[in-house]
């Protein structure tokens, strides 16, 4: 019994150490990304990236008709569908559906974390756009109606926040490593496709999308870090134990 108790205490300490190392690495990564965003945003506002931005946008359009993107005719429709995955309507529906599912599963604190992450990300995007006020590209015709400023891309940033948060949540539920990798890969793929579609449609410079990705990764990481660091006090661990016990009794 003494050996068993010692082993459990040792395993518990090892698990805590791994969690602390994970928190430290995620926090360090977020700080590095935030520093890169500040440097990147400075270069964008000073016009250092403008020539490259313009060159890329023009390269993605047909030389004889700048209103048409390169590639087959169906690509424009596909890009319009893909860009909607990062729009406020689709992302809002995704968040509502996920939060509703979590509430029905009695995972109230997890639902609250997802909701706060989504709302705070939307507010952050609006604030950043008002701060930088970069005009939209005019070198090629827009293939999508837009009304806000250009930097950082709200679609790229908010899709990164939402899809990465949901991917991280699914990774914690998944048991096998391949499933965890799949969840992360799908979250990254959706985020990537949304950002690329904004450039192809001519409504954002490439640097707008890169800035949105960086800031989205930072915000998603910080929200994940806070949720993990204080999950014991917010009751998420208790929720898991309660759900696990309920499943055991059901069996």
Q: How do the helices and strands line up, and which of them pair or pack?
A:
Elements: H1 2-45, H2 50-59, E1 61-62, E2 65-69, H3 74-84, H4 88-104, H5 108-132, H6 154-173, H7 177-200, H8 206-229, H9 231-234, H10 236-250
Antiparallel strand pairs: 1-2
Explain this structure.
- The chain is 77% helix and 3% strand.
- With 251 residues, it is mainly α.
- It has one domain: Vanadium-containing Chloroperoxidase, domain 1 (Up-down Bundle).
- It has a two-stranded antiparallel sheet with strand order 1-2.
- A hairpin with a 2-residue loop joins strand 1 and strand 2.
- Helix 6 packs antiparallel against helix 7.
- It is globular and about 55 Å long.
- The model has no long low-confidence stretch (mean pLDDT 81).
Strand order of the largest sheet: 1-2
Mean pLDDT: 81
Task: Output the number of helix runs.
Answer: 10
Major sheet size, sense and barrel closure = 2 strands, antiparallel
* Percentage of residues in strands: under 5%
- Shape summary: globular
CATH architecture: Up-down Bundle
Supply the CATH class: Mainly Alpha
What level of helicity do the residues show? Answer: over 70%
CATH fold description? Vanadium-containing Chloroperoxidase, domain 1
Q: Structural class, from helix and strand content? A: mainly alpha
Order of helices and strands: HHEEHHHHHHHH
Number of strands: 2
Low-confidence stretches: none
Radius of gyration: 21 Å
- Spatial separation of the terminal alpha carbons: 29 Å
Number of domains: 1
């Amino acid at each position: 019994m003494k050996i068993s108790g010692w082993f459990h205490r040792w395993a518990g300490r090892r698990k805590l150490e791994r969690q602390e190392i994970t928190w430290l690495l995620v926090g360090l990564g977020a700080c590095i990304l935030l520093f890169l965003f500040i440097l990147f945003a400075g270069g964008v506002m000073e016009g250092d990236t403008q020539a490259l931005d313009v060159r890329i946008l023009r390269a993605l359009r047909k030389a004889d008709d700048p209103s048409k993107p390169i590639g087959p005719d169906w690509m424009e429709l596909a890009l319009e569908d893909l860009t909607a995955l990062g729009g406020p309507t689709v992302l809002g529906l995704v968040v509502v559906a996920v939060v509703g599912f979590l509430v029905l599963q009695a995972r109230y604190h997890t639902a609250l974390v997802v909701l706060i992450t989504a709302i705070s990300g939307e507010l952050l995007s609006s604030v950043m756009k008002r701060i930088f006020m970069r005009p939209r590209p005019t070198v090629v015709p827009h293939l999508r109606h837009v009304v806000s400023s250009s930097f950082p891309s709200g679609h790229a940033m908010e899709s990164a926040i939402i899809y990465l948060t949901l991917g991280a949540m699914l990774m914690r539920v998944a048991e096998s490593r391949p499933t965890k990798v799949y969840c992360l890969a799908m979250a990254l793929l959706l985020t990537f496709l949304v950002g690329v579609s904004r450039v192809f449609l001519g409504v954002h410079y490439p640097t707008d999308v890169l800035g949105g990705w960086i800031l989205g990764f930072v915000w998603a990481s910080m929200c994940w870090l806070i949720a993990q660091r204080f999950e014991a006090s917010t009751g998420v661990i208790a929720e898991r134990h309660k759900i696990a016990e309920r499943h055991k009794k059901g069996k």
